[in-house]
Structures are given as structure tokens and as C-alpha cells.
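Dissemination and training. As part of the outreach component of the grant, students in the summer workshop were shown how a complex can be specified as a set of sequence lines and then modelled as a single object. The example used during the hands-on session is reproduced here so that future cohorts can follow it. Participants entered these lines:
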Amino acid sequence: MNFLRISHKRQLLLIALIMIPVFAVLFVRVGYLMIYRSEYYSEKADDLHERERTIKAARGVIYDANGTEIASNRTVCTISVVHNQVKQPDEVIAMLSAELGIDEAKIKGLVEKRSSREIIKTNVDKKTGDKIRNYGYEGVKVDEDYKRYYPYGSMASKVLGFTGADNQGIIGLEVEYEDVLKGTNGKLLTLTDAAGIEIDDAAEKRIEPVAGNNLKLSLDVNIQKYAEQAALKVMEKKNAKRVSVIIMNPQNGELLAMVNCPEFDLNAPYKLSDSIEKPLSGKEYSDALNNMWRNTCINDTYEPGSTFKIITMSAALDAGVVGLNDTFHCGGFRVVEDRRIHCHKVIGHGTETFVQGAMNSCNPVFIDVGLRLGVDRFYEYFNRFGLLSKTGIDLPGEASTIMHKKENMGEVELATVSFGQSFQITPIQLVTTAASLVNGGRRVTPHFGVEVMSSDGESITKLEYKTTGGIISEETSKTVRYILEKVVSEGSGSKAYIEGYSIGGKTATSEKLPRKTGRYISSFLGFVPADNPQVIALITIDEPEGVYYGGTIAAPVIKEIYENILPYLEIEKTEGKLSGEEE
Amino acid sequence: MKKDQRSLGDKLKSWIMQDRGGYDYTLLFAIIFIACFGLVMVYSSSSYVAYTQFGSSFYFFKRQAFFMLLGIAAMFVVSKIDYHLWLKFAVLGILSAIVLMLLVNFTPFGIEFNGKKRWFGIAGHSLFQAAEYVKIVLIIGLAAYVNRVGKRVDKWPTIVITALISIPLCLLVAMNNLSTGIILVGITFVMVYIASQKKVLYIILVVLAVVGGVSAVFLGDQFVKMGILKPYQFERIYVWLDPEAYALEGGHQVIQGLYAIGSGGLFGKGLGKSLQKLGFVPEARNDMIFSIICEELGVIGALALIAMFMFVIYRLFRAAINAPDLVGAMITIGVMTHIAIQVILNVAVVTNTIPNTGVTLPFISYGGTSVIFLFLEIGLALSVSNLSRCKR
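and obtained this result:
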């Protein structure tokens, strides 16, 4: 029998001692993983265990000035399948195919796909969703969420805009007020096992969605509808390409209506109008969509033509370079430097006062006035009136003014700018500038958004916009109003005259570039009442066929709109003539 | 020097003198405690999968409980039998182990699971995992041989015969079960080292193994970069270094284990509250059970369990030192080494401290063969402790 020697014991002790640092390393390692790295691995594990379903937040409602919903939400359903929970795949496939009208083969592919959750179809209406839920098949999930809905269809389409699949704004006010309208999506977290099966007794974590805030606009559905009808009528009658109407409160810049005919259906924004020939390539399709969604009042510039004489007039009167009874002579043209610039009346207006020149919309008169101002002063007024910057309207994509550089501006350029040619501005810029000149000289910011309200209707903020006073004197503003009232009561804008109302306005007929192709933009800008404007409107008719004079075709449309909306706006008739500025 | 050695010997002696040995009830109860704890954890980690796969959440629990009762009973019997009895069967045992391994590896008696032939069975019915039998046979065989050669232990013929006993078995096992092969090598190495007086040889071996292992990692990486080795041949290393980047190549199991361990935190989610056991961690009741223990019982529970194993190892160490004779000490050392290596490897693998290799956690992991043979080994150690009273 062999005994255990002391050397054996010593070597055994050595082995045992070696184990101590080995176990110490394991202790440290376990401690490191479970304490120091705990957060990291816990988070990863939670991600793994939790199946997350988004609960869409309701987007804020957009109201018009009367509190009518013009953009709201409709409940729709998202249909999805959880592969591991489906017990009767064939029945499920057949049912989904029948209810959703999707090809069976396609659904089969989705149902049989080994994923934790496969979405079959989104934006299914609630009725169909309820029906599918009532079948009670295991593994078929019907989740309700919200989809944007526009009760008025195409009304003010380019102003309101629409939302995409994730309820985010794509164009228009929906984009501009994204942060206001957008809510915070909620989450539904369920624990699952490795096969993706939800664990029955595990508590569901539910993070409630927060609805977006509501937005109240100055836009008035009734006025918008009147304006749209009138615009559509003239567009069809004159076979015009486009007709735009802007109606604004000149005192504060609140926009009451903005029409861009042809409008499109906000509930089907990706459907091109039938007049477009198909099929289109991908790029052509997206170009056509962008074209359809374009808000020409804001996104496009044009040569304003004679309506711009309001600005020249205001600058000249404010600078004191012209008086109402200064006389001018029009021989049908004016020679500036080496250039012969024609008046629209070829034989000329003869001798006329400044007021008469305005009533006749005589180009030579305004060329003379512009030249009297000179480039420096004209440019200064142009800038002071806010024409060089954007209006700051609460819509995306406003185009900038396209104007000569001051150093490149000679007499010829000055002469043409004086009557509204050789530069481009947006319709919203024109109407805003005109409004600021006739409201007493306060440059206003055009806008739709008035108030942000919480989802339960309480006011959160009243939106405020910048106003810059004193761009011209109150006195000059009054004179301008007087002259423009004359234009409508006795001059070229007479077709806008409504018995009993004092209306100020200016017509324009601008030839589109390139010249001599017979394409015109006819427009009319008018405001009521002439002595204290409460409403101002601008119509532009793009490429009318036949008679194209602004005074003939545009002015009557504004008249028609005013006949409808002035009583509605409770603007009372002023009996008799405006007590004007007679010298 | 001599003075030092003597004082160390004195210290050892006085330490040992405190407890003159006798049947080691402390070890017995520690083992039963660990086994019961293991049974609870097997239930916790397997119930969900058992329910979804077999319709009964107790499926694995019941089987494990049965084998444990069987094992405990066998342990009692063995612990009351004089361990010298088994020495007579040492040669037979080694030969039978070789035959068994040949049968399993090369004949239909070997039954394949997950592509590995590890089970001995008859006509397709699997009976037990052959490698577990090899472990206990090797321990007894080596102890008997070391005892027999006595002082000739460091002579070359002895070394050659030792190698002949151990190496064929290690290789046969390693064919289908690399990690158990490594464990067998480890047991052999420790037992022979303690028996031997020639330390230089072993120090050289250890240095060679360490240098070889480290250089294999670096060279292998270089070879893969040079295109000499294919990346899959080196996969385990890559998985070990960055399991998340190599999830598909085998990192999955490691990552899931780490998620479980990490989400345990200080106190754990509570017994039965693991989520990773719901099919996320592969082998949750088996090789990876330690990760579920971490998740449910936290760092406190995990370290307590390791401490419990350390205590068992300590009791086995005492039993070896107190052993009445060399052969008893060698058997106990074999058992101690076996348990220590498996605990260390298992915890190290599950925590991704070393590259992945399949090792079970003794007395905790699910598995009938493993549990029964482990109890038998403890029975042997208890038997040694039982006779230590009559020492000298």
C-alpha cells in the first residue's frame, strides 16, 4: 500500500491554489457582465422580447374661420398576420383575399413568410377591418389607426395640402404646420417568446398616443367655395390654363380664400386628372404630380403688368414727384433712350391728368412718373414696400421676386418696370403689397393660420404675424385709394363696379414670355370699401382664349365674387360716391 | 528552504488536524443541495419549452428528478463500499471503455444527435452518453496504475503506459466530443502531475500548451488573412472575439447567453421570470443553464452558486489530503479535477471568457448520464473520506 507523501500534498495544494485566481477571473467576468454591462444587454434583450406595435396618433384637425372641419381624420385599419399564430393558413388566405381584393398568390406569400409580423394591407376602411376581425381567425391582427380625410375633397387643395402614408404633411399647410398638427405616436409593447408568440400573462406596456394640436385658419369655406365656382366658370368659359384667386383682409393679412384652378382631390392626391395622356414614365408621372400640386399664387412668378402701376403710383405720390392734376401727353408711345415703348392704345390717350392716366392705364404716363423717380428712389421704394423679400406667408415654397440688379437698371428698365414689365413677382406678393399700400401703409404678412388649439378645443396660442408700419404715409395711401376707386367707377376697371359699393381696383393684361405668341395673363385686383378696405382680391387668368383684356374678363369675375361675399362679410353698401381727394 | 518547507508542512498538518475526517457529511449535503438547486433550475429553464414541445411543463423536470434519485441512491451505495474493490476492475474498465468508444464511434451502437455520435444505444434506442462512463473509468484506472507503479512513477516505461491508458481514450472521445476530450486530458494531467516527482516535464508541457494556444490564435488569424486557412475553420475564435458580428456562424448562442446574463443585473428577475429561456437561449436547460441562473437570480445568485462549487472542490481537496492512502487520494483528486474543470469551462464559455465549447455544469445541467456518473464519483470520494478515520 502506497501512502500519500508530503510532496503529493504540496502539489495538490499548488493545483488548488492555481484554481483560486481562475475562479477570481470568473467572478470578475460575471460581475462585469451583470453589473457594468447590464444596461447594454438588458436593452438588447428587451428589444428582442418586445414586439412593438405603433398606435398612430390622431393628427390635429384643421378648421376654417367658422370652425368647420376642413381636414380631419378617419379611422382606418391595418391588417397584418403573425406567422406563428396562424392556425388555419388556407382559410386565412382565402378570407383575406376575398375581403381585401388582393390576389391569393400574393397573400399566400405574405402569410407563409416567416416573419414576426407581416403587414397585408394598410388604410383598409373600418367596416372591412371589423368584418375581418369578426372572422376571429388566430394570427390575423386588425389594428386601427387614423388616416387624413378632407371632407371638401378638392377645396383649397393646394393650400391645405395632404399627408403621406405615415401621416406626415406632403405639401401646403400640412407641411407648414407639421409640428403643430403631428401628434406623438403611441406604442403597444407585448412580450414574446423566441417563436414570436405573445406571452399570455405578461403585462402589456402601452404608451398612449398624444393627438396633435388643432389649427384654425382664416380661410372661410363659404368664400373659398364662391371664389372657386367663379374661377372654375371663367376657366371653362375662356378655356384658360389656370385661374387663381386670392382673397385677403388687407388690414391684417388674413387670407380668406386662395383658389388655384384646376384643383385636385385631396383624398386621392396621386390620381392625375383624366385629361393627362397615359401611360407616363416614372419621371413624367412625378413631374405631372408636382405640376398638379403647384400653388401658382405662391410658387410661381409672373410679370404683373398694369396692376403694378399701383406700386409706381404710390411711390411717386409718396415721393411727391407727381400731383393728381399734373398733365401728361400720350401719343401712343414713349421713346426712352433709343427704345420706343408703346401704349396699349396705339393712337394714344392725348393730353390727360395723372388721375386720368391711371384710369386709362396709360403706359407713357407711368413711364414719365417712373423716370421722375429715378432708379435710386424707385429701387428704394421697391425695397421698402417689401417687394425684394418674400411675403413670409405660412405656406411652403414661396418664390422670390425676380428683379433687375440695381446696378444693371438703366432708363429703359426703369421705364418698363414702372408699368409692370421686365420683372416678375408672385401673385401673393402683388396682393400683399397692394393691400399694404391701401390699408394706410402697413406692410402685413399674408397668412392662413390664426390659432393653435389643443385637441380638446382649448386655445393654446393665437398666431401673430409681423406688421411694418409707415411704408407710405396715411395721406398717400388715401390718395392711392381715391385714384383706384376712380379706376373702377369711371376707368378701365368699370366692369367690377357694383351698384352701391365703393370699389378700388386695377386691371392688367400681361403678355407672357416669349412675346408675340398670343399668350396672356389677364388679371384684376380690387378692394372694398375703397375708403377703408376690408377685403382685397386678386384674380389671374392664365392664357384665356378669345378676348384677353383684364378689364373685360377678369374684372367681372371679381365683381361676381364680391356680389356674393360682400353681404356675407357684412360689408355694407356706402350710398353715394366716395368723398375723394379733389384738389 | 528546508525550514520554510517544514513550516508549510506544519501549517498544513495543523489545518488538517482540526478535522480528522470520517464520512464527509458536509460534502454530501453540499452536493445534495447543489443537485436540488439544479433540479429547480432545470424546471425553471425547461418548463416553457417542455410545455410547447411535449405538452407538459414537467417533462424535463421529471426525467431529471428520476435520474437524480437514482444517482443519489447509487452514491450512497458506492460511498459505503470500500473503494479498493474497484481497483480490481481497473483494467477491465479501461478495456471496456475503449471497446465502448469504438462501438459508439464506428458501429450502429453509436447514436447520433445533432450530427454528433455521442450516445451508446441498442437498435436505435439510446441508453447513455459513453463519454461520461469514460471519465469515471479513467479516474479509477489512472489511480490504480499510479498506486501499482509506486516509486517507479517517473520512469519512462511508466510514462509510456500512462500515455497508452489515457491517450487512446482521449482521442476516441474527442472525435465526437472535443470538450470532453479536453476534460479527460485535464484530469489525466492533474492526476499524473500530483503523482509525479518530476515537475520540469509538466512545467514544459504547460508552457508549451499556453504558447501553442496563444500562437494558434494569432497565427490562425494571420493564416486566414493570407488565405491559407478558410475562415470557417477559425470561426470559434472569431465568434469568441466578436459574437455579435458572427451571429450566424455560431455567435447566436453566445449572444443570447450574454443577453440573459446581462439582463439579470444585481438581484435578477426572480426565480422563473427569465425571458431568455422562452426559446431564445439554445440549450437553456443544458450547457447554457448558467445564463438563465444569472438572469433569474442575478449576480448574487450566480456568484453564490460558483462559491458553492468552490466549497465542494475544497471539501474534495480536504478529502484527498486526508485520504488513507495514495490510491484514495488519486481517486478523489480525479473527481475534484473533473468537477473543477467542468465548472470553470462552463462558466467561462457561457460568459464568453473563452471560445465556445459544449460543457455541462455539473449537477445543474439537464442530462441523466452526466448526473448519475457524477453522483457515482462523489460516492467514491465519500468512500475515501469514510476510510480516512482509520488512517495510520
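Chain B touches chain A through 52 residues (CB under 8 Å). Students were then asked to discuss how this feature might be tested experimentally.
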